Amino acid sequence: MNYIDLDHKTILITGAAGFIGSNLVIELLRTVPSVSIIGIDNMNDYYDVSIKAWRLEQIEALGGSWTFVRGNIADKELIVNLFEKYKPEIVVNLAAQAGVRYSITNPDVYIESNLIGFYNILEACRHYPVEHLVYASSSSVYGVNKKVPYSTEDKVDNPVSLYAATKKSNELMAHAYSKLYNIPSTGLRFFTVYGPAGRPDMAYFSFTNKLRAGETIKIFNYGNCLRDFTYIDDIVEGVKRVIQGAPDKKTGEDGLPIPPYAVYNIGNSKPENLLDFVQILSEELVKAEVLPDDYNFENHKELVAMQPGDVTVTYADTSELESTFEFKPNTDLRTGLRRFAEWYKVFYKV
């Protein structure tokens, strides 16, 4: 592994107004004062843009060397110009159209952002050599694998959603570019990321909105699902460590590069039953005074069948992450949901 000192580096972070991207920017600006960060985000309206704007405000309040560009990574000319102007040494590609269910009804945006956009990033890394490309993959690539916990050694050839297929494609594309052009690249398979100022389409956030509105929440597969919930701070710490550890460049016996390529899981390695998750969420929402003490949760829950594209379990084997970077996510679900509930109360002025 090639250690990268982040001091005085220029880092391009795509999806910088997103949940993970904005928190990563904040962490880097706080802990590496000499770093220069270029952020790009198209600020699309897949979910409430005011949350993205709030995240950017938190970044601006920190000061430091921060430049934000509003644009789409599928715009090749824009990406080429960014690399030409700023010459980033590290690229963290977090821009992507997220969501399993949305990929069934709106497939076009997944092809644009997750495939064309990522291709543009790879091409730019080819022509403007970078020390390390880190990119977001997803636990969705494991599909309906029966073996748990999910290991990066497992075959992931059977995606059950277009979203998962695009993420697996990202890993294959990155591997090809690593082999052909000796670009150090690392993919990160994130497992159900949650926390304050997260994505409103995620269960914990959408459930909260619906419960506040007096609506019924649907719990899929009749509650018989397990999710490896991973708190945002753990994700960011993992990404930060991975950025600093690029795969080594090596030459094979044939004189050609051995791909400097790696993939890691980042998850809590502690799957939670959805019914238990809803119970903890409801308790923390009451404690934060987002919902009243006498709220009747049983009247607002509906157990329903499995959704197309969904999987019954996500469970990360993080042993490689632990052995390589000496890090294991460990924030418990109650603590994470408590922080979310407290943020929610303030943001929505409950």
TrEMBL record:
PANTHER family: EPIMERASE-RELATED. This is Nucleoside-diphosphate-sugar epimerase. Keywords: NAD. Residues 11-253 form the NAD-dependent epimerase/dehydratase domain. The keyword NAD applies. Pfam families: Epimerase. InterPro entries: Epimerase_deHydtase (IPR001509), NAD(P)-bd_dom_sf (IPR036291).
